[in-house]
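If I may wish for something, please sit down with the protein I am sending here and say whether tokens and residues agree:
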Amino acid sequence: MTCCPRFIFGIPRDARISHYYTELKWLYPRYRRQYFLATFLYQSIRTQPPSYISQLLSFRSAVHSRNTDPFPPPSTSLPTVNSAFSRSFQIHATNLWNSIRHSPNLYTFKCRYFSLVLSTQSS
């Protein structure tokens, strides 16, 4: 991933390239992985998820039926884990899904989330 900005701008191998990602409006690799995880989650939760994914996520509506919002987006409940599992898909997916805003469709979600992550990496 770092070789692309180096090739485009003719940057030497030992130079820093972080500000070139911002100039190209590209995401850093870790934010890019987070963006694809969020997109995958949105598609999985809004459509019929595969059984192996739906088994990893437990929704709050399945735990209790108390709703304070008339049209709440589905939110997931965080499983109890130790530090060994803190980087697992289940934990990342739950934290990510509960931190993003509700969007009516996939295109709007992608645009909003991309601009959010791009502004996060720029600051």
